[in-house]
Q: What sequence folds into this?
């Protein structure tokens, strides 16, 4: 029985490991790159190699960066009394796109989801607490998505930060219930920010 050449089979197998790519799509992609668009195949492999080598997490806020500190953390002109807490880098980009928030960020890289076996250690919470304990932060705006896990994380974090005496607020429920922050439009996000409510202390 004839099959694709081994190198192509490997490419198909690697594509199939990507989220939401089945074997059929993987085969189509591999065939397209090899058969119709060799130039794209070359630049794709270069871009991938470069990104994997160059991009890492910011040492302070855990956003993506090519330097030890990301462009936002390197900017001295932002408001250093406010932190916006988001789940993932895509959420930070969504908030930045609105262009109104001028403070710094902290990216959790996870949510508190006890039913899925994800405890507090599954997110960058320890680092957040250290940043808050270092002083100078007057308010932490919790901008986790309006999902069960996003809400649970917000309440959990607010309780801990409240004990440290830091004001925490939560985005207004303009974000549709179950809505992911990264897919919210700019007007909705802007309203959610200005209508945010204090949780603690
Ligand atoms: Zn940073």
A:
């Amino acid at each position: 029985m004839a099959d694709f050449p081994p190198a192509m089979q490997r490419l198909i197998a690697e594509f199939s490991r990507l989220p939401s790519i089945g074997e059929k799509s993987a085969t189509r992609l591999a065939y397209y790159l090899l058969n119709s668009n060799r130039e794209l195949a070359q630049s794709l492999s270069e871009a991938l190699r470069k990104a994997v080598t160059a991009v890492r997490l910011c040492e302070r806020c855990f956003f993506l960066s090519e330097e030890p500190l990301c462009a936002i953390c390197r900017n001295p002109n932002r408001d250093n009394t406010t932190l916006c807490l988001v789940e993932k880098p895509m959420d930070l980009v969504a908030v930045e796109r609105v262009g109104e928030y001028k403070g710094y960020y902290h990216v959790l890289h996870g949510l508190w989801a006890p039913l899925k076996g994800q405890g507090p250690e599954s997110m960058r919470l320890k680092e957040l607490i250290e940043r808050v304990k270092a002083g100078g932060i007057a308010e932490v705006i919790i901008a986790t998505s309006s999902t069960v896990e996003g809400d649970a994380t917000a309440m959990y974090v607010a309780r801990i930060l409240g004990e440290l005496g830091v004001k925490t607020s939560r985005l207004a429920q303009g974000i549709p219930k179950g809505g992911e922050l990264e897919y919210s439009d700019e007007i909705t996000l802007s309203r959610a920010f200005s209508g945010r409510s204090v949780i603690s202390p």
